[in-house]
Design brief:
Layout: H1 6-11, E1 19-24, H2 29-40, E2 45-49, H3 59-70, E3 93-99, H4 109-122, E4 125-130, H5 134-138, H6 154-164, H7 178-188, E5 201-202, H8 204-212, H9 217-230
Parallel strand pairs: 1-2, 1-3, 3-4
Antiparallel strand pairs: 4-5
Length: 231
């Protein structure tokens, strides 16, 4: 990557910064998790969309929200709801974070496949966890897949995460172990048919790797971890 002229960086530093937009299926836990990193690095252009109760959080519903928020159309020429700056498709990153969470009829399978096809058109990325976001949270502390009686059931993972972390996973402090989570999730990652993550694995580590490459976030994490270990 060519070295940028510092004079021009001083004139327009904000416009030269790459941004990451994240749209989460969960309106609370996922949202608060990613907002942790925004607070940790004030220079990080991380925009986490806050899903409202009335909005559709299905796979295609999330896509439609991202499309309406980021892409100008005849009915939406001003790109409504952009919270910081205009979305630049040639530079900025967009991730949709969701779960596999199979139902009895497996009705989410076809929409998930359609979502992947739609995202390819815009070079948007998907971070899918099988079966739920708690799989990603689990790997912040553990390096091997757990031995669960029903690993396809999200409730099993939620109970497990709360049991291995005293007081449960706290999005105000536990995301600091994200680098450990990346390593643990990566070494356990597998894909199954249709390129979905295997049960007990998650693609969120791919999102996290990209996120750490933006701004000074990686340095901030290292500094915070150093402070924790020296106390």
């Amino acid at each position: 990557m060519p070295i940028k002229n510092r004079f021009f960086e001083r004139i327009e530093p904000e416009r030269s910064a790459q941004k990451m937009y994240i749209f989460c299926e969960g309106a609370d836990r996922e949202y608060r998790y990613f907002r942790y990193f925004e607070a940790l690095d004030s220079h990080l252009h991380l925009i986490v969309y806050r899903l409202q109760e009335h909005e559709d959080n299905s796979p295609l519903g999330l896509y439609q929200i991202a499309e309406k928020t980021l892409l100008p159309t005849a009915n939406n020429p001003e790109q409504e709801n952009i919270p910081i700056m205009d979305y630049r498709p040639e530079e900025d990153l967009v991730w949709i974070v969701l779960d596999t969470d199979k139902d009895k009829t497996n009705s989410r399978h076809a929409p998930l496949l359609e979502l992947r096809e739609k995202c390819v058109q815009h070079c948007w990325q998907i971070a899918q966890s099988n079966p739920c976001f708690e799989v990603w949270l689990y790997y912040h502390q553990e390096s091997e897949k757990p031995d669960l009686s029903n690993p396809e059931v999200p409730k099993e993972w939620k109970i497990l995460v709360d049991s291995i972390i005293k007081g449960g996973f706290d999005p105000r402090k536990h995301p600091i172990w994200v680098q450990q989570a990346i390593q643990n999730a990566k070494q356990n990652f597998e894909r199954i048919e249709d390129e979905f993550p295997a049960i007990g694995t998650t693609e969120v580590y791919l999102l996290a790797k990209q996120m750490l490459a933006i701004g000074q976030l990686q340095n901030k994490i290292q500094q915070t971890l150093k402070q924790l270990t020296t106390k």
